[in-house]
Structures are given as structure tokens and as C-alpha cells.
Design goal:
7 helices; eight-stranded mixed sheet; alpha/beta
Length: about 240
């Protein structure tokens, strides 16, 4: 079997929560082009995978072949999967086994994502919409010029028939009431948005956030109410 330059950092063999209403396997890719301050998997940001696991594409495909009657979907996350050389070819191999594909992305590679959708190679997209334009650079630590690509991806998903969700991690130190309102306005008409409360897992990219607390549920529900004025459905992940 021909290998592609596909950097696999890890494999969670079974998940009951990552693909809606389906039993799935999660594949973690190595490397990300964002530097989100609250990132809780900073070891997945560098493209060097020596500190993680050495898992080959062939091993993953063999595992999926053996689990065809127990697993229904493959969730590909990262890092940022759309940076991977060979992602499309890999997904084609998995789709031939009749698996559903869920792709997690930061939305920074619009053309490739659009191509995968048009070729019916993905069934569900979870886009991490990091922040509204005004604080995008503060959160991601990359240039605001990237936001043009983010906007194209966001608008495409909102106007598509594909199953998708947007999700934004919010943290009191970085998000204020007005920021959530601006976020809601940018995501206007989205079918599903998740507000994800910040949790400190002890290995954050920005060490100054270690020890910070997330929002109380009362504030999360207030923000949910704000979001619902603009989007079709908003849920809380606390």
C-alpha cells in the first residue's frame, strides 16, 4: 500500500461523543498553523512528531478494516488536518470502507475544504471559530489577514447543506460580553454553534492562563441567549 506524507500523532480507538449519534474512532494529526493561547494540546502544534507516537497510515487503515462492523465513523482532528499532505487520498481510502468522515478544522484552508465537500469525502464538519475579527489575532497569535480565509469557510458552511457545527472556546480573561455579541453577529444564520467553556488542563500553550477559571453557568446561559438572537441553535459545552 502506498504511503503518503501524513503525520499521525495518535489514535483514540473508540468514542461515543465525537460524531453525533455514531460510534467513532478519532485520528489526531500533527501540526497546526494557529497558536491559540488556550490550546490544551500544545504538543500537537509543531510538525515534528517525535514526542508523540509513530503511527503509520497503513496501521490506521488496517485497524479500520478490522473494526468495520463496530465503528461507524472516523473523526480526523489535530493539530489542523487540512495542512496534511495526502489528506484527500487518505480520506478516499477510508470512504471506500463505507465510513462516515468528520473533519475538525480551524477553517484556514477554504479551497481544500470546499474540494473535499464537493467530492463528498466528508460528512460532518466541526469548525473551530476562534474569535470575532477584533480579537482574532489576540486569541490565535497569527495575522488578522488569515481572517479572510476564515470568513470564506464560515460563509460557505452556513450556506451549505452539509452537517456542520461551529464551536468557540470562551475564557473570561480573553472574552467579554461585547465579544460574544460580535461573535454572534459574525455567525448569523449558522445552524449550530457550541460555546465551549474554558478548562485548565495544566498544559496550556500560554502558561499565563494556567489557573484561570471558566465562566459560571449563569454567564454561559446569558451568552447562549445572546447567540440565539442570531443563530438557529446554540448549545453549551461546560
Amino acid at each position: 500500500m502506498q504511503e503518503t506524507n501524513f503525520k499521525i500523532a495518535g489514535l483514540q480507538k473508540t468514542s461515543l461523543i465525537d460524531y453525533p449519534k455514531k460510534i467513532s474512532t478519532i485520528l489526531f494529526t500533527q501540526g497546526c498553523n494557529f497558536r491559540c493561547r488556550y490550546c490544551h494540546n500544545p504538543e500537537l502544534i509543531p510538525f515534528n512528531q517525535e514526542m508523540i507516537f509513530d503511527i503509520s497510515e497503513e496501521e490506521v487503515l488496517d485497524f479500520l478494516k478490522k473494526r468495520k462492523h463496530k465503528i461507524e465513523a472516523l473523526c480526523i482532528t489535530g493539530g489542523e488536518p487540512l495542512l496534511q499532505v495526502g489528506l484527500k487520498e487518505f480520506i478516499k481510502k477510508v470512504k471506500k470502507m463505507k465510513y462516515k468522515i468528520k473533519l475538525d478544522t480551524n477553517g484556514s484552508n477554504f479551497e481544500l475544504l470546499k474540494n473535499l465537500i464537493e467530492e463528498k469525502l466528508v460528512d460532518y464538519i466541526a469548525m473551530d471559530y476562534k474569535a470575532h475579527f477584533g480579537i482574532f489575532e489576540t486569541i490565535t497569535q497569527i495575522s488578522k489577514s488569515m481572517f479572510r480565509e476564515i470568513t470564506k469557510t464560515k460563509d460557505y458552511l452556513i450556506n451549505s447543506k452539509l452537517k456542520y457545527e461551529f464551536r468557540t472556546t470562551i475564557i473570561p480573561k480573553l472574552f467579554k460580553d461585547d465579544d460574544v455579541l460580535k461573535l454572534a453577529q459574525e455567525l448569523k444564520d449558522a445552524k449550530l454553534v457550541y460555546l465551549q467553556n474554558f478548562h485548565d488542563n495544566g498544559k496550556l500553550l500560554d502558561e499565563s492562563l494556567v489557573g484561570e477559571l471558566g465562566f459560571p453557568m449563569t454567564k454561559l446561559k446569558e451568552y447562549q441567549k445572546t447567540m440565539k438572537q442570531y443563530v438557529k441553535k446554540c448549545e453549551i459545552r461546560n
